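Researcher: We're teaching a course module on how sequence relates to structure. For the next exercise, students receive a sequence and then see the predicted structure as C-alpha cells, so they can try to spot secondary structure elements on their own. Here is the exercise chain.
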Amino acid sequence: MAPKDPAAAVIVAAGDIAECPGGRQEETAALVEQIGPDAVFTLGDTTYPDGALDEFLDCYHPSWGKFRPITRAVVGNHEYHAPRAGPFFAYFCGGAGAPFEGRASFDIGAWHVVMLNSNCGGDLDVPSSVPDDFGGCGPDSPQARWLKEDLAAHPSRCTLAMWHHPRFTSGEHGSADSMRDLWKILQDAGADVVLAGHAHLYERFAPMNADGQVDVVRGMRGFVVGTGGKVPLHAIDQVHAGSEVRNTDTLGVLRLELRSEGYAWRFVPAGGSSFTDEGEAPCHD
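Model: And here is the predicted structure for the students to work with:
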C-alpha cells in the first residue's frame, strides 16, 4: 500500500503485547520492523501480568522496545497492577502523556491525535489500585474538560483518538459504556477514528455514534487491535450490530496511513496467517 499522499504518515498500532514466558511479542515486533512506520501506537496492557518494571525490561524491551523512541503508549488495566501504573509511566516517559494521568495530544502529519485514560471503573476490568486523580471519564470529569479544551484548541479535519477499553466490541469483555461521554465529545468535534485494545481479537466497526448506532455521517470508526502478542486470543461473545469484520485466531498489527484528507487501513497478520482486512475512507468534512 504505497502512500498516495506526500503528507501521509504511517503508524502501526496494537495492544495486549508482551508476556514472559509464552507471549509472541517477537513475532509482532518483526511486523513493525518490516513496515517501518513513522510512529507506533501501543493500546494498553503493554506487559503481562502486572505491568512490573522487570516485565518491561525482560519481555517488552527486547522486542517492541526497539521502537520506544517513536512510540506513543496509552495505559491499560494490567499496568495498574503496579501502584499508579508507575513502571509504565517511567518506561515510556513522555511517550505516555503526563505521569499518572495518561492523557496527551499531538499532531502527526495532517492529523491531530488524542490519548485518553479509559481506566474509569464501573463496567470495566480495572484494578482497585487505579487512583481517582487521572481525570475520570464522566461528562464533567477533568479528563472530559481537558478533551473539550484540547479539541477546541486544535481544530483539524482529521482526528484520531486512542485508549485501552473499547467503547464497542463483540469480545467476551464487553463494550465499555463508561467511555460513552468521551466518545460523544469526540463525535461532536468531528473526530474520525478510535483505536483500542483490551479485547484480545481484531475487530473493525462501521462509523458509530456514542449510543452504539451506525452513523455514516458523523460517527467514528473503531478498531480493536488486542492482537499484539498476548495469547490466547478471546472468543466472540455476541456480535455487535456495528461490527463489520472480526477475527479471533490471528495475532498481528494494524497499519494506518494517515493522509491529509482521509486514511487507509490494513491488518498485517503474524505467523503466516492469511487473514487480513483493508480499506480506506475520507475524514469528515
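Model: If you want an answer key for the exercise: The CA atoms of residues 127 and 268 lie 32 Å apart. The chain has a mean pLDDT of 93.
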